[in-house]
Amino acid sequence: MIKFTKRYWEYIIFSFFCISISAWILEILYSLILRHRFVLPGTLSGPWCPVYGTTFLALLFFINKKDNRIYNLIKIFVIATIVEYISSFISDEIFHHIIWDYHNYFLNINGRVCFEMTSLFTILGYFAMYYVEPKLRRISIQLDDKLKIIDMILVSMFLLDILVNIFFV
User: Fold this and answer.
1) Confidence category of residue 119, pLDDT binned at 50, 70, 90
2) Which of 57, 59, 136, 147 sits at a 20 to 30 Å CA gap from 154?
3) C-alpha closest to that of 55 among 83, 87, 14
4) What is the rounded CA–CA span in Å between residue 124 and residue 115?
5) pTM of the predicted structure, to 2 decimals
6) Domain region containing 128
């Protein structure tokens, strides 16, 4: 059972931003390598893709690394599918912004998710849970009291980015 201490929340916020920022960089590299063009990913202006951070947090809450790895791989696939679908739905239906369209992909659901991309996100999620997460935990412990300040700066920048995008973009 997870203990939701103040320190744990600091770790959660830190993890969200580390994964969101890393994903932003990966998305840029993906576009450069596979599409041969520079594309700024996401719906916000800042250097983050919150859908990845959100997925990572869901994995933190629902994946028990003591469970069988194949079972966890299946859970990661389901969680990634759900978060991606909900994110696409919210972006499209509430903000009227289509952030991705998988209609032309094999085994897609309403163009919001598809087997190919969810499989890729499953591999990334597995890697994140078993290899990245332990490193993030160690870094957050090493940062100690600085973690709270880093979190406050990142949250402030993120909220400012959201406000700017709601009211000015």
Assistant:
1) very high
2) 59
3) 83
4) 14
5) 0.89
6) 6-167
